[in-house]
């Protein structure tokens, strides 16, 4: 199936295309997508700039009703969209369904904000004067999204941006554009005016060139790798452009001596290996109190052994394929490096067929300073580390350049509170997997895991709008 760009309200056939293949069955072509360049990106930005004056004047409640209609479209087409996600990016079908449902709920959530107060009436020190503050849109915003959450991440960027009156150019990853395509179709069906949302599919370099040239650009929200994120930051450093970066993670799961070890093992296994560990919030280090290390290790390996590996369309599958051959080769290199750094494999360590499957893999014996315990792998690989006390566990959890998500399994409130206070992460869990967030709360990391205002919840409203203060003598 050939899919084009969506610019100025029209689906445009592409002059050059590439084939996206099924990572579970690499000989199967899923879709033909555009290989867009700078020209297509500039056309999209011009369309967004032209649409902004009219869109900002549409009442916010009408903008919200468009989001509500789009949410209903997603719900009505949930099963077919979920299957597309599963086939294109290898996401197990149970997670794909949950992601589509979440995208619909995100649209509903932000639509509801239209019925909240949109500003403030403040007391003025001057007689006969009203002091008001109200939100206003920024203008043209660019959204750059990854392949691993192909519909949820575009949804949680798009919904607040559109609700607040901005116009958008959306560029999804070439490895998984289908979620963005479905969102555009939903909003098109919901009656979104032409030019308000534009979709450009293609490689990042020409799109980045366009970003540097567009005079009307007011904000960029990017989710992806640390290196690319900071390159983008440098490229826009001399521009008055707001920037939001959601980057990588090296997320610790701590198991304390009082924890329910079987439950902790399940949480660690699910957080590390569902979707083959291809989540920025996935568990990649498990830190265990020495008193229960051996017992937990046994329970952890048993929990991993119960995870079904295979076809993403199989309802029982929990570990699907990696996104492509390069990703599997990267995982294999990291496992080899872990062995060179003194590690030993407790389970896994091998690629599987068909497709780009890789066994869930656990290594122990590597020092916390080893590169395999320091750098994001983005695959089904975990290192296991003992800790003697809470101070050591927290220090180990913090001893990386990332700070996205962390979790601890414990029954003790004092231990939980000490961990919540001491760990350096944007999202901290107790008795939950490191993976998994809720859209009504701010989401984002610290250190090199993020830059700028947080996504989701009320925090997103502040990123996609500005405050105008009005001083009126009456």
TrEMBL record:
<feature type="active site">
    <location>
        <position position="246"/>
    </location>
</feature>
<dbReference type="InterPro" id="IPR016163">
    <property type="entry name" value="Ald_DH_C"/>
</dbReference>
<comment type="similarity">
    <text>Belongs to the aldehyde dehydrogenase family.</text>
</comment>
<dbReference type="InterPro" id="IPR016160">
    <property type="entry name" value="Ald_DH_CS_CYS"/>
</dbReference>
<dbReference type="GO" id="GO:0004030">
    <property type="term" value="F:aldehyde dehydrogenase [NAD(P)+] activity"/>
</dbReference>
<dbReference type="InterPro" id="IPR016162">
    <property type="entry name" value="Ald_DH_N"/>
</dbReference>
<dbReference type="InterPro" id="IPR015590">
    <property type="entry name" value="Aldehyde_DH_dom"/>
</dbReference>
<dbReference type="InterPro" id="IPR016161">
    <property type="entry name" value="Ald_DH/histidinol_DH"/>
</dbReference>
<dbReference type="Pfam" id="PF00171">
    <property type="entry name" value="Aldedh"/>
</dbReference>
<feature type="domain" description="Aldehyde dehydrogenase">
    <location>
        <begin position="12"/>
        <end position="469"/>
    </location>
</feature>
<protein>
    <submittedName>
        <fullName>Aldehyde dehydrogenase, thermostable</fullName>
        <ecNumber>1.2.1.5</ecNumber>
    </submittedName>
</protein>
<dbReference type="InterPro" id="IPR029510">
    <property type="entry name" value="Ald_DH_CS_GLU"/>
</dbReference>
<keyword id="KW-0560">Oxidoreductase</keyword>
């Amino acid at each position: 199936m050939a899919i084009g760009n969506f610019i100025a309200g029209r689906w445009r056939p592409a002059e050059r295309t590439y084939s996206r293949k099924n990572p579970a069955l690499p000989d199967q072509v899923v879709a033909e997508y555009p290989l867009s360049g700078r020209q297509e990106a500039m056309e999209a930005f011009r369309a967004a700039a032209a649409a902004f004056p009219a869109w900002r004047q549409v009442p916010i409640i009408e903008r919200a009703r468009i989001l509500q209609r789009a949410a209903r479209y997603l719900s009505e087409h949930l099963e077919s969209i979920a299957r597309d996600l599963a086939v294109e990016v290898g996401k197990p079908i149970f997670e794909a369904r949950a992601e589509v449902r979440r995208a619909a709920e995100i649209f509903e959530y932000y639509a509801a904000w239209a019925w909240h107060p949109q500003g403030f009436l403040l007391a003025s020190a001057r007689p006969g004067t009203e002091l008001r503050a109200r939100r206003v849109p920024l203008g043209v915003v660019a959204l750059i999204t990854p392949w691993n959450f192909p519909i949820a991440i575009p949804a949680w960027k798009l919904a607040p941006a559109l609700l607040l009156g901005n116009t958008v150019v959306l560029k999804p990853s070439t490895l998984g554009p289908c979620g963005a395509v479905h969102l555009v179709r939903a909003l098109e069906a919901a009656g979104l005016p032409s030019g308000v949302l534009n979709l450009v599919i293609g490689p990042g370099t020409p799109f980045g060139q366009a970003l540097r040239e567009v005079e009307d650009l007011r904000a960029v929200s990017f989710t992806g790798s640390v290196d690319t994120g900071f390159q983008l930051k440098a490229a826009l450093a001399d521009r008055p452009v707001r920037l939001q970066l959601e980057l990588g993670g090296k997320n610790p799961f701590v198991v304390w001596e009082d924890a329910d070890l079987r439950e902790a093992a399940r949480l660690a296994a699910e957080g590390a290996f569902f979707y083959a560990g291809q989540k920025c919030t996935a568990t990649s280090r498990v830190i265990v109190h020495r008193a229960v290390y051996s017992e937990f290790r046994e329970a952890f390996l048993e929990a991993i052994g119960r995870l079904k590996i295979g076809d993403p369309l199989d309802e029982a599958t929990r570990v699907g394929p990696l996104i492509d051959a390069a990703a599997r080769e990267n995982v294999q290199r990291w496992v080899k490096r872990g062995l060179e750094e003194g590690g030993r494999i407790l389970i896994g360590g091998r690629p599987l067929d068909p497709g780009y499957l890789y066994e869930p893999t656990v290594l122990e014996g590597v020092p916390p300073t080893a590169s395999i315990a320091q750098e994001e792998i983005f695959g089904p690989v975990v290192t296991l580390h003992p800790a003697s006390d809470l101070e050591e566990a927290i220090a180990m959890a913090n001893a990386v350049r990332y700070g996205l998500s962390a979790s601890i399994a414990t029954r003790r409130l004092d231990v939980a509170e000490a961990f919540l206070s001491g760990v350096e992460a944007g999202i901290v869990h107790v008795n939950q997997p490191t993976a998994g967030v809720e859209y009504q709360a701010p989401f984002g990391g610290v250190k090199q895991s993020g830059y700028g205002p947080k996504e989701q919840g009320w925090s997103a409203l502040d990123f996609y709008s500005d405050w105008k203060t009005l001083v009126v003598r009456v």
